[in-house]
Amino acid sequence: RVGLKLLELGSVALQRTGLRDVAFRHLHSLALRTGLVAHLGILDQGDVVYLDRVMTTRVALPTRVGGREPAYCTALGKAMLAFADPASQATALAGARRRTEFTVVEPRAVQAALDSTRQTGIAYDREEAYAGLGCVAAAIRSGDRVIGAISLTGPIARMRAHSLVHEVRNTALAIWNGNVVPLPRPLASAR
């Protein structure tokens, strides 16, 4: 019974998250435009917590709303860690281990990735969290203040990360600015 009660409380908490409410239409539009899975997450003690996931196509993903993943190996996590204070970065990187053959765990390489993300505003996961999956993400921020991040995820063969940068960056900016977008209609040819 305790398990069900916690699930219920967690669902109520997610429904009351203002960020999730503001981001929903943006995530849905992003997923429809790209045919990929759009995620919204926040940083919590070195982990990404998924607040929302919008799927417009059938893609098998291990993520779920309310789930957690280590921030150091996800694009969502790196997008937020790049702007985090040194203590938060240290917490996230403590105990970093390889999850796939592509997971970056060497401290200098991780720091270089975070520095690059801080400069460009875009983070990548190229099969670092899960084999076969790629991700591109941007923090939702104003200056150095970060409240969350969004990402696009899909099979690595379908990820053209550089062509998705504009979409992800602009969507993160629109969410921060609170721009209202109409809920898009699915195209007849949508996958």
Report on this model:
This protein has six helices and six strands, in the order H-H-E-E-E-H-H-H-E-E-E-H. With 191 residues, the protein is of the alpha+beta class. It has a six-stranded antiparallel sheet, with helices on both faces. It is globular, with a radius of gyration of 16 Å. The termini are far apart.
Structural class: alpha+beta
- Estimated radius of gyration: 16 Å
The shape is globular
User: Helical element count?
Assistant: 6
Largest sheet: 6 strands, antiparallel
First-residue to last-residue Cα separation:
39 Å
Tell me the total number of β-strands: 6
Strand order of the largest sheet: 3-2-1-6-5-4
How much of the polypeptide forms β-strand, as a percent range? 15-25%
Residue share in helices? 40-55%
Order of helices and strands: HHEEEHHHEEEH
Could you tell me the mean pLDDT?
Answer: 81
Low-confidence stretches: 186-191
Helices and strands in order, then pairings?
Blueprint: H1 2-15, H2 18-34, E1 37-44, E2 47-54, E3 68-70, H3 75-81, H4 86-93, H5 107-120, E4 123-126, E5 133-142, E6 145-155, H6 161-177
Antiparallel strand pairs: 1-2, 1-6, 2-3, 4-5, 5-6
Helix pairs in contact: 2-6
Provide a quick synopsis of the model:
By secondary structure, the protein is an alpha+beta fold.
